[in-house]
């Protein structure tokens, strides 16, 4: 296990310190979603969080986004504690989050228009982004008229147009078929490269995490999961995702990290079986 | 008291018109042919009514002949007798609709967004809603007199609750992810309302619009019927007072046509405002 040794930047793009999130259950008990999470993401780094089902991956992302307040611990961004939504971050959701009543171009320009940019200017900027993600001829469509992959491209443009310093991505491509997904991952890397943006990427797919990231964080089995592993991904960039799975370094890292993740996945599985047993 | 347009009372049926059209086509009968069948059915029923009436099998006094009803309708229209009454009724319905919808929307949005107020008002709103509204008509008559305002107040109590409950549900059922996404993109509370909550609640609001238009007219007519000096309800009550069943049926027929036309206009507006919605495919 290696930790980033650079150590110089004191201002992390995202920093969670001892963050715990608990919910009270209807039965009067407390349910710990995550416990004592420490996470540091330097500006410009691509960090993936991988964990078994129910390990609170989205909870961590929502705390970084400011959509959830940690029950204890602090969430900060660039040295300042996160109050309300994190204004320096964009969020890509797992589900479709485009407004169905707005056309593609209205959706993409939404962040700008809400920030007070004039409609003409916002639309020309949005048009530029649509060209970048290969949707320039679809500006006037409504989301339901697009394929799943096209909706994700729109969501990418919507998130990037506001030029955030941080991108929070919650399994953004999990709903796509494998081929489309690989293309989208490649395009994401191309956009991200040299952009200097920090990315926190949630996935349950270890292949995807290793292929994309500078660092992979492994979460333990839930509930009340915490960080159990932290791996530096040293595969050189730029990477070609279509061939990366044959790279010896990829194979080696995958074996090492899967060895750790496997334990947590089995725990989750055992717990689920035990629960089924109780019910039966 | 009947609800003029109660078949749309249920929750929003997405793409109702279009699905109906598709279902019809799927059954192998074209829209045009179905129109012909519908006309045939109407002709058969009315023809049978007419013939049975002329043959003396059904009592012409209680069920006046369709031809006589149409003649009365025509005379009401051609002499211009009905128009001042219709105008009064429409005024009352329009005012009740406008005020009731505005208040329903406002309070619906407010209570949906402020949890404290929703919990505070909930039992009182339930109580008022449980009250059969028609019992309010006499008291409104005392408070506001025989003129249009007693009918507007009555219609208001009918319209308000429909719009209010639908708006409340509509706003509360907004997809969480859409709200989070808009907030992450920097939406203020006002922008959330404009870009997310209002459009999202629109399907619910429209389903309430269909029924509240009917309710506004119901309110006006029932109010007039119970005490007024003008209006279609008053005209019907007058006809009934002199045992003129043809007049009663004529008034009913005219109201029916007017409500149908208004509903058609609401449908048009709905189709335009909800044009972003996917066409339901089966």
List keywords for this structure.
heterodimer; A: 280 residues; alpha/beta; Rossmann fold; 2 domains; four-stranded antiparallel β-sheet; disordered N terminus; B: 282 residues; mainly alpha; MetI-like fold; 11 helices; 0% strand; ATP-binding (chain A); AAA+_ATPase (chain A); ATP binding (chain A); ABC_transporter-like_ATP-bd (chain A); ABC_transporter_ATP-bind (chain A)
Structural summary, described in words:
- The complex is a heterodimer of chains A (280) and B (282).
- Chain A folds into 2 domains: 1-18 and 41-88 and 165-280, P-loop containing nucleotide triphosphate hydrolases (Rossmann fold), CATH 3.40.50; 99-163.
- The radius of gyration of chain A is 19 Å and the shape is globular.
- Chain A has 280 residues and is α/β, with parallel strands linked by helices.
- In chain A, helix 3 (119-132) crosses helix 4 and helix 4 packs parallel to helix 5 (178-192).
- Chain A has helices at residues 57-65, 104-114, 119-132, 148-160, 178-192, 206-212, 248-279; strands at residues 14-24, 30-41, 46-50, 72-77, 80-81, 89-92, 166-170, 198-203, 215-219, 227-232.
- Chain B is mainly alpha-helical.
- In chain B, helix 7 (148-172) packs antiparallel against helix 9.
- Chain B is globular, with a radius of gyration of 22 Å.
- In chain B, 35% of the residues are buried.
Write a brief structural summary.
With 280 residues, chain A is α/β, with parallel strands linked by helices.
Question: What topology emerges from the helices and strands here?
Answer:
The complex is a heterodimer of chains A (280) and B (282).
Chain A lengths: L13 E11 L5 E12 L4 E5 L6 H9 L6 E6 L2 E2 L7 E4 L11 H11 L4 H14 L15 H13 L5 E5 L7 H15 L5 E6 L2 H7 L2 E5 L7 E6 L15 H32 L1
Parallel strand pairs in A: 3-8, 3-9, 6-7, 7-8
Antiparallel strand pairs in A: 1-2, 1-4, 4-5, 9-10
Helix pairs in contact in A: 2-3, 2-4, 3-4, 4-5, 6-7
Chain B lengths: L15 H11 L4 H24 L11 H13 L3 H32 L1 H16 L5 H9 L3 H25 L3 H9 L4 H38 L5 H10 L3 H29 L9
Helix pairs in contact in B: 3-11, 4-5, 4-7, 4-9, 4-10, 6-7, 7-9, 8-9, 9-10, 9-11, 10-11
Protein name (chain A): ABC transporter ATP-binding protein
Organism (chain A): Arthrobacter mangrovi
Pfam family, one (chain A): ABC_tran
